[in-house]
Task: structure prediction
Amino acid sequence: MKPKVEISAPVADEIKTSTCYMCACRCGIKVYLKDGQVRYIEGNRDHPVNRGVLCGKGSAGIMQQYSPARLRAPLLRVGERGKGEFKEISWDEALGLATQWLGDVRDSDPKKLAFFTGRDQSQSLTGWWAIQFGTPNYAAHGGFCSVNMAAAGLYTFGGSFWEFGEPDWAHTRYFMLFGVAEDHASNPIKMGIGKLKARGAKFVSINPVRTGYSAIADEWVGIKPGTDGLFVASLIREMLKADRVDAEYLVRYTNAPWLVIDDKGSADHGLFARDRKGNPLAFDKKTGKLTNAMLPDIAPAMIGDFKLKDGRKAVPAFQLLARRFLDVRYAPERVEKETGVPADTIRRIAAELAEAAFEQEVVLDVPWTDWAGRKHDKMIGRPISMHAMRGISAHSNGFHTCRLIHVLQILLGSIDCPGGFRYKPPYPKQTPPWLKPSGKPRDVAPSEPLGGPHLGFPLGPDDLLVDENGTPGRIDKAFSWDAPLAAHGLMHMVITNAGNRDPYPIDVLFLYMANMSWNSTMNVPEVLGHLTARDEKTGDYKIPKIIYSDAYYSEMVAYADLILPDTTYLERWDCISLLDRPVSEADGPADSIRQPVIKPDRDVRAFQEVLIDLGARLKLPGFVTDKGKPKYPGGYPDYIVNHERKPGIGPLAGWRGQKGEAYGVGAPYTKQLQRYIENGCFHFHKLKPSMHYYKHANREYLDWALQMGYRGTATPIVFQLYSEPMQHFHLAAEGHGPVVPPKHHRRRIATFFDPLPFWYAPFEGSLLDDGDYPFAAVTQRPMAMYHSWGSQNAWLRQIHGANRLYINAARAREMDIADDDWVWIIGYKGRVKAQVKLQEGVNPDTVWTWNAIGKRSGAWSLDKDAPEATRGFLLNHLISELLPVRPGGYRYSNSDPVTGQAAWYDLRVRIEKAEADPARTEPFYEPIDTPWKRDLPDTLRFGEQFRRDRWRRGS
Amino acid sequence: MTTLPQTTAKKLGLVIDLDTCVGCQACATSCKEWNTGGYSAPLTDQNPYGADQHGAWLNRIHSFEAGEGDASRTVHFPRSCLHCEEPDCVTVCPTGASYKREEDGIVLVNPDTCIGCKLCSWACPYGAREYDYGHGVMKKCTLCVDRIYNDNLLPEDRVPACVRACPTGARHFGDLGDPSSEVSQLVRRRGGFDLLPEMGYKPVNKYLPPRERRDGRAANAASTALPESGGGASRLDKLFGWADRLLSR
Amino acid sequence: MHPAYSVIFFTTASGAGYGLLSLLLLFALLGLVSPDVWLGLTGFGLAFVLIVAGLLSSTAHLGRPERAWRAFSQWRSSWLSREGVMAVLTFAPAGIAALGWVLLGEVSGALAWAGWAAILCAGMTVYCTGMIYASLKTIRQWHHPLVALNYVVLALATGAVLLDTLLTMTGQPSRQATWTAVAALAIALALKLAYWASIDSANKSYTVGRATGLGRFGKVQPLDPPHTEPNFVMREMGYRVGRKHAARLRLIAALLGFILPAVLLAIAEQAGGAPWLNSIAVASAAAGVVVERWLFFAEAEHVVMLYYGAGAA
Ligand SMILES: Nc1nc2c(c(=O)[nH]1)N[C@H]1C(S)=C(S)[C@@H](COP(=O)(O)OP(=O)(O)OC[C@H]3O[C@@H](n4cnc5c(=O)[nH]c(N)nc54)[C@H](O)[C@@H]3O)O[C@H]1N2
Ligand SMILES: Nc1nc2c(c(=O)[nH]1)N[C@H]1C(S)=C(S)[C@@H](COP(=O)(O)OP(=O)(O)OC[C@H]3O[C@@H](n4cnc5c(=O)[nH]c(N)nc54)[C@H](O)[C@@H]3O)O[C@H]1N2
Ligand code: SF4
Ligand code: SF4
Ligand code: SF4
Ligand code: SF4
Ligand code: SF4
Ligand SMILES: [Mo]
Result:
């Protein structure tokens, strides 16, 4: 009696495509629906991002969809902030209240609204809304994420990592990964590394911790946190010393030969020597004359002292660069101790890089035309690629460290060539992009929209958003002397500054998709203080009104006054636009959408719908017709299809024009969303092979990019090894020019605004005594958990229900600490109690833990004694948002001095044994209540419903 | 039916590449997701939102460290049923619920006849059988028997959910009984090995060992360093000497 | 291994039951006791109660007790199935013999055959129980030649204690019964001590290095478990008992389970029968055997735990 097995059971009533949002990677998915419920989610094989694969989070989407922590209706706070006491209200009431609060602000003083968004991907909508509202205080999460790297890339070669570019997985022979545990491109990186492994290309991971990717790297370099800059500078030095740089490449594509004025003390010292038309000058060896450096076919000198017309001296930028890196300061022996990387290893890696770059050229038989019209019958590449993320960005020296990495890539001639690092359209952009930040104090007026986008790229002090005394115009002090190139804002400073009313008080704090009272804030204890602090006189909260949109019962919800409950990613329309952070591939631009695959069973609304509705209620320009009627009565889908940012350019690039025949530029097409759905909810525009590489100097590509509106001109992008904008700030710090920094800022600006990258020790460490805090403390993203939101997921929380502090095994034994012991992690801010796991594969001076596993008891509608709260912990309690007080008293934020990027990983700690009893992590905050009764099942039987028949038969 | 078949027509199984697995858990959650609604539905979870949460999973990802200090390495280690050729998990079963299929060698539990005595889980050295507390029966990897032959799926999708999801391509599925199959060749090429062969269960699934690292821990010899250009002159001279070469290109 | 009380009770109770059943019949067949009604009623009564109660409690540990009947089908390969089948088979000859004894007051002729058959079946049933454990390669402490024997001898010993007590209580004390019990207890203890000595000395050949095949790179240690809270495998196979604790319990088991009962029975016999001593002996033996059985599980190390951090097995 052989049992009968249903090997071909029907799998779904219907399969719908959409885009995953268990993280920001945005893979294409196919959602299997059975009896109106989600049966299964799999990767979409046609999708450019994930080619069919799905990660551990994406495959647990079902449990997100059916999480008991999903918000159910709009909430109005009734108890004290932080208690979690709310009453449910109607949407009319909620929107009425919001309109009133926001309207008052807009009519009186728009800057009293601070609108900040977290993990969302609708920044082109939210940003545009903020512009129409007229507040200068808008930014997204980028400021605490990776802005220093984004800026470093955009100011150096008009691109960056992540959405901006990727390694040429198919051809690269040597791949260096700096400080990455998971990355935004979670799946592409995994797929790419898989390819490298199959091809046998060498993969080097530079990381103090050996887990995940680093575990399978051919070589793991267990570097000391914060010292990558030294390591890379040392590699650069080896390259220069051995004359292993791609000279032709430097002449063709970089400002290496541009002449830099050498006239100490003058207002233009260190700036480029230019002709009357403003073209940079170079010394042409053919003619023996100074010529326009932008001309093709010149033979510019890279070394030497040259006389300018006015008789002053000038030297090629390259000479300054060579001088800096030939300095013995960067010799392998000298950096060995600070980096923890043996000198021999540095030398060998340099040799391997050179070998791969110059002995293993990749040649593709693809003809192409360069920017000057010169035809080439082959595409020749140096198969070196690099990728980096928060191991670099989360340090206060991240901007310069990232510049160093790019300089190394450029010296090796490996940017956008076969086997190298490749741009993803719409990148490359101008270096830096021609977009200035808007919101100078004088441009902010009641009931007036803002002049332009909030976030941009200052070229010099004149572009800062400060008043005549140098006081910041923005609540987060972005684009002020505190953080001049804060291209993404400083989200991590908003609550603290608003609480301190520095530079000014605000009235409404409007947050979207950011858990700012817990895992995404620095210094949790004091930030909770600011959120609940009251004004002595009025007795009101210092931050009077907080509006928040979340989809789940996060820690932040408990601290807001008005909650606008969002839908889940399977219940709404979304638009992943080229105007935002796109999902393009190096082979061509791509954008995508989410479509509702199931109906919400709760009284919730998609935030984008709500924002458009609020825009109309507030009568914001662009959101109402000239008759004052709502401009997008159809809500978000209406906006996605019909909104035009510039004539012919809207949120989606695919299927535009009368009949959907146009790509990129064209009139809105009524059936656009249908077309997207028919195509799997994405559009991928594959470029001709002749446009695949050298996009920064590829005539065909540059012309096309101009048509698409990616660029203002079709001029080539010249890599800025030497950064003139940096020098503009430097000169200002020396007192030159109309806009100069206030006294107390000058030394800092002068030091860190160096036109050439350099290394300096991370701030917190250098301000504290190493002896007291011998360990660097960092976090890593667990691959199966997305920040805070995985913990409500019945499956993912089984994988990461609690977290340990990992310590180097040998070091732990010295301190007589064993597995499972409890310890105090002590920073200068306070202490956190955690349980220990010993690890061989971790840098001896580093301790670490998984990020965002620790939860506030009661949040996420988990049981109050859930392990996330009793055995989970955050380092955020110890990470200060302000630097230790220093002589002079002024406290800078704990950020990169150039861009304001939050320096999460500068944290220094010491470890002391703690009593094992009680066996629970500390600090422990009082539990949060849920506004609804916790009716949590003790057994979850998901899937039973799909097999009822069989389930009953059992006996 | 718990007496084992003499031979099976095929030996379907998985080959897992420990040199490529990054421990991302995709194969674990996609397995849970497919199977909780599939052949052995449901895979229940206890205290899903409370303390002591746990549930029935058919595939679990461990991570180990092998060796100490500099010589150590981290290895991610997915573990699921190996569909052994001679497994006691089948022969000990008193009800016949546990059996090995003649056609493809897949080892299955029939959830309709299992009495939940747990004996098979005691007999499995690999921890591949998980008792489902909420369903009262034993659960185990089905090799996605309800996918690999399923006409309702696209042909290219008729592979196990875990293989379908794996982002790094560390999981391979095929007939290990056929020496010419891709998986068999892969196993030969990479020296695939059995878990605990001493047990005599003859696992069908194979593991590919982590490859030798290329970190030249030993090879860090000066010889591997780049030759210094220019003689013993001062650094600046060197710079210029070097520059001449550059210019004279 | 996790000591499940239902299983502990089942194996000890039914063991004693089968022991009592066999010895009762044996003594009668050898003419060492006369098959009088009272002895029959109490003897078989007690034996059947113990057996049935044991079997019932064994189903308590099933996830689907209502399907228990299916367990009879796989006797070709499964010791658990065989145990079930034998347990049921035993009732037939045992029932006939018992009825004959109680109604006809004799065990001769055809009834004798039934008696011998019942003894054989009972023995085989207990042997099957032992083999369920002894056949598991995955557990060193169980996959051991003495395990099945231990089960049989312990069944006899506990059965003998009960028989001797019954005879004393039903007013026909028997030297042979007492000395059988004492001897059985002695042998059982000897075997148990031999078993303990042997599992203690056996070298733990399996390591996590071998289990993962990663031993080639050196000492292997777990870094992260698959899940942060214990799963079924860890709950079922992960039970560990401290060395000291185990040693103490072994002593208790030896004293209560074997030595004390033997001594008490001997004294009682010398004293020409002392029912209260017998009852203490029974209680003590019961307690001791339960401890012994608890240890049998608690001391068993499953090789799978290597994947979950056990050093060796
Ligand atoms: N699964 C999952 N995926 C995610 C997220 C998530 O929460 N979960 N978050 C998303 C977000 S918002 C972001 S920003 C990205 C971040 O993606 P990642 O950059 O991968 O984020 P982290 O886990 O912080 O990785 C930082 C790595 O740098 C290492 N590191 C720390 N300090 C240094 C150093 O000084 N030098 C070097 N070389 N390495 C160092 C750490 O050990 C760690 O491995 O991930 C995104 N993707
Ligand atoms: N110690 C330490 N702290 C860190 C980091 C670190 O590496 N170490 N990383 C930092 C970085 S790079 C980042 S980007 C931040 C990330 O921190 P956050 O941006 O705060 O990310 P999440 O914790 O995921 O919080 C996102 C919030 O969005 C909500 N949400 C999820 N889905 C939806 C939805 O569909 N709609 C709405 N309206 N809300 C939704 C979630 O419930 C959650 O409350 O964390 C930062 N904090
Ligand atoms: S990486 Fe994973 S979670 Fe993120 S979008 Fe892709 S599948 Fe979803
Ligand atoms: S999905 Fe692939 S890479 Fe991820 S854990 Fe499983 S086998 Fe490893
Ligand atoms: S791995 Fe375990 S469950 Fe699977 S066949 Fe082998 S013994 Fe049976
Ligand atoms: S638990 Fe089920 S499958 Fe396992 S042995 Fe018992 S009856 Fe057979
Ligand atoms: S084959 Fe199917 S059941 Fe087995 S581990 Fe993979 S996904 Fe799970
Ligand atoms: Mo981030």
Summary: The radius of gyration of chain B is 25 Å. Chain B touches chain A through 101 residues (CB under 8 Å). Residues B 21-27, 61, 76, 78, 166, 168, 170-171 surround iron/sulfur cluster (ligand 4) (CB under 6 Å). The first helix of chain B runs from residue 26 to 35.
